[in-house]
Amino acid sequence: MNLLDAKEGEEYIVKDIMSDDEELKSFLFSLGCYSGEPITVISRLKGGCVVSIKDGRYNIDTDLAQAISI
C-alpha cells in the first residue's frame, strides 16, 4: 500500500520508494524518508498530505505520496 492509503495519525514504516527518478529518491532521502524509517500522515489536503518524518513535518503532493510504499 502507498501513503495515500494510510490512516491519519497512525505510524507506518517506509518499505520502498517506487520511482525510477533518482532525483526524487535523493530528495526523499534528504528528508529522512527511506526504507525502514517511520512515517506518519498528520493530515490530508486537497493536493496531497502533511507527513511527519523524524522531527520534521512536510507537505507532499499526491504523486509523491503514491511513490512511497508503506
Automatic annotation (TrEMBL):
> Would I find Iron among this entry's keywords?
yes
Residue ranges annotated for the Ferrous iron transporter FeoA-like domain, each copy included: 1-70
Record keywords: Nucleus included?
A: no
Protein keywords: Iron
Q: Where is the signal peptide?
A: none
Highest taxon of source:
Bacteria
- The protein in question is named Ferrous iron transporter FeoA-like domain-containing protein
